[in-house]
Amino acid sequence: MSGPGRTRGSSTRYTQMTKEERRASLRLLGSLLKPYKWQLVGLSTIVVLAQLASVASPAIIAWGIDNGIPALLEGNATPAVAASVAHIAAALVGGGLMYVFIRWNMTIGQHMLFGLRKRLFLHSQRLDMKFHETYASGRTVARQTSDMDALANLLNSGLDIMVGSVLQMVFTMVLIVTMDVPSGVVMAGLLIPATMLTIWFQKRSSVIYRQIQTNSARLISHFVETVSGIRAVKSYRRQRANGERYEQLAEDHRQSSLRSIQLFGIYQPTLRWLSTITIAAVLTVGGFRVLGDELQVGVLVALVLYARRFFQPIDEIANFYNTFQSAVAALEKISGLMAEESSVTDPEDPVELADVQGEIVFDDVSFRYDDELPLALHPTSLHVPAGQTVAIVGSTGAGKSTIAKLMARFYDVTDGSITLDGVNLKDLDMETLTDHIVMVTQESYLFSGSVANNIALGNPEASREEIEAAAAIIGADTFIQRLPQ
Amino acid sequence: MIAAMARLWRIIAPIRTRLYLGLLVTIGASVVGLMIPQVLEVLVNNLNSSPTAATVWIAGGVVVALGLVEAVLLWLRRVFAIGPSTNTEREMRVRFYNWILDMPVAFHNDWGSGQLLSRAQQDVTQIRRWIAFGMIMMVSSAATVLVGIYMMSRSSILLAGIFLVVVPPIIWLTYRFQREFSILTRRSQDLNGEISTTVEQSVQGIRVLKAFGRSKQALEKFQITAGALRDNEVRKATTTARFDMFMMALPETVLGISLLVGLFQVNSGGMNVGQLASFFATATLVVGPTRMLGMLFGQAVNATTALERYFEVMDSENTIVSPDHPVAIDFANATGELVMEDVRFRFPDAAQDQPDMFQGVDLHIRPGETMALVGVTGNGKSTLLQLVPRIFDITGGRIIIDGVSVHDMDLDDLRRLTAFAFEDTTLFSSSVRDNVLLGVDPELPDAVQKEIAWEALHAADADFVVDLIHGIETRIGEEGFSLSGGQRQRIALARAIAARPSLLLLDDPLSALDTKTEERVIDQLKMVLDNTTTFIIAHRSSTVSLADRVALLDHGKITAVGTHQELLRSSPRYRYIMATNTAGSHEVNL
Fold first, then answer.
1. Distance, in angstroms, between B222 CA and closest chain A CA?
2. For residue range A383-420, what is the model confidence (pLDDT) as tens digits?
3. Which of A13, A32, A57, A111 is the most buried (most CB within 10 A)?
């Protein structure tokens, strides 16, 4: 029997994000980051230094050309050697810092993620049955799987690329402006069409990406359905018809991936051309400035080298925006689940039960699943002496399984009390309770693992003999022996 | 590796021309890109000797034009190569699907749907990427590196030589990284899958976990997997970090050395400033394709694995096929008379010391008769039924329908003669109507089909379909709509009846029904089964009452055949089984 009203209110309750929930998700993020506060400060320093080292190269080359050659002509090799050493030092330091940054950043992120996974798992286990019956199980699973994946994505590809790419662009820009203001203006000007192009591409591609997702989900679910229902497919001679259907779905999938490829085929070469135009512009503007003796040749070379790299991170930054958005949405949903509270809680001073006899007393117990719902169990008193087997008989929906669920404390009684050996169930630790009261549910849910593990679920310390004895009692021994192992 | 690639080469025969064109434009794009540093060289030298405004304008213009040509060529690469490769992808996928659909059920049991799916999806996509991207980029990257080094050598042979030193380690490191990373990624995917399973079970089995107070143990198990994932991700990060470190330090260090050498060369007159500038610009352009080469070697290995996984399935032998010269079946006069002669069977993966599952089953079901099959749980009743439409193939003896061995019939004909209602009721996500009419000739007029569907639904006591949201057109499996086990079973039963077979095979089709519903279904079924030959697996005496005669399957043989009353009188084993089955069902219903 299922609790009445299991679907009530659940759909509207969790869809809308209010300001408060947004704050709750920020609080959750804060609590995740807090233990790593100083590590994060250290990380930020390292990434700034690493990126500075990585953008230094063209500037050093420019300095080498402009100062090294004249000095060499005068027989002074120091500037040339200095430039070379600086270049090598920047390379080594940059590389080393990069290593530290990526590794450290990821370690922090993964530990954070692990902590959150654990918290979420424990939390969902602690929530009462009332919650599990109203919140669709698929969503509880999604919070712990796909939403966690969205966060993991942010950590995996997102943060280091984002921080790295943005810093790289900013530093490049700053260096260019310090070397030559007009060239900086030209490059900043070309950033506008490049940004517009990227925004256009991102918008279009997110639409197409969703199409691909839908189409591939269809393709996959058709495949899985046919393959897992293969006996029915064969018995009813559906191979050919299903083959045609699959071909259609595969074609839809092809069309949408083709669209995505075509879109990228426009974006990528255009961005490349924009970057070449930037080189041309820098070359022309810088060329004239060299002509007017306002710029040295080495600086011009450096500007051209910078122009080549300048647009490279723009696509990554745009991608990051998507990753970031889905991670924020995921975080909001996760904090929504974390905000749920269990109504069935452990007592503050649990009563220890030493020698349990098993006497159960229902004293005027009534129960309703929800305040607005009628009573699922009308006031009931029942005395089960220790050692007795009692059968409860009644029509469907009379509340038979409710009685059992109340005993296992899936729910707390609305009125009255239930006692085990004279102790109120609410005064017992959940652990103590489940050690002494076990409910065999109607559903036969088996966990992946060996048959023995499933039988020993209630008592992990059970010996092989005990497990076999339990199987024999319910007559499951013969067919289990026939299984391969 | 070579064998797999050679087979792939044959598969892409129809699109090879397009791929060659794609390769050509890709190389073209690289060469055009490499011309840009040459412009820089000319301009810098010009600025150093006899600068004019015209050269500056020309240089800028030429770069813009080169960039445009490069962009167009890059665009053409996609037009030429990538479009056709998606066709190949689709074809490989469809061929795979049709192939496995023809494979016997035993094959599916061995492979599992997850394995087959990952081959049809990920592996085929990876192969497509290799065709459209990998193969072409491999050749064109190599070309770019060669042309680039040639261009550098025109600046200075010494500098080109220094740069050449760094090329092999970059390729090697990238290749190693790609391999390591893809192995770690696969491991992460596996662990992620494990986490999903654990989470799903912890949520769906929450009642059981709570009832037994086992949440803590579940958490411990979860923690182990999540911890393993965390460690693997950190390992992945370490690999990435190490790789990025080398990729930054190596080429830049070499460029630092080149800077010193270059400056001295300029000083000694071995080269000019323009050439030095163009060397650096070219080197920046060549580092990318060098890394790409290493990555592509790694991708080639992955693509080979994907190809081998694909071919592994496509090369498996189909053991259940139609005979070369099938006997023509007279459907109009088919009676469904079934004869089993000394039928033997064992699963191919059965242990050596295990006896055959069936050790010579003999049985005769007369035309129009309803025969119930009774036996203890797990003794192979379902398997015996599935031997008839060749879901599995017998390993000895003969199964004959209307005088023709099932092995002499075309598989389609055989399965048109028979219809099967399984105990696990697989319904497809389509309308109720489509599900019921699965075995019905789709060429029949709509009205006739509809009538067949309703008749069958009525016979299976599935009239509740009228009350569904969209009646018979309601889609099964849509969100928020699910049928109870008993409802699904009745629709599956209706499906078997609607196929109007000569021989109806029913695998305990009433197991999920409560006693009242079962009674109603049995009353309806009796009328339908009256003139259809039926072989039905029964656990409860109520189901047995449908049958004219009962066969008792015990220890791999039919040990008794007779009416329910006869067997109750003559067979102690039958009495025992009926008694325990009935008692058992009461316990379950409590």
1. 8
2. 888 888 888 877 656 677 788 888 888 888 888 889 88
3. A57
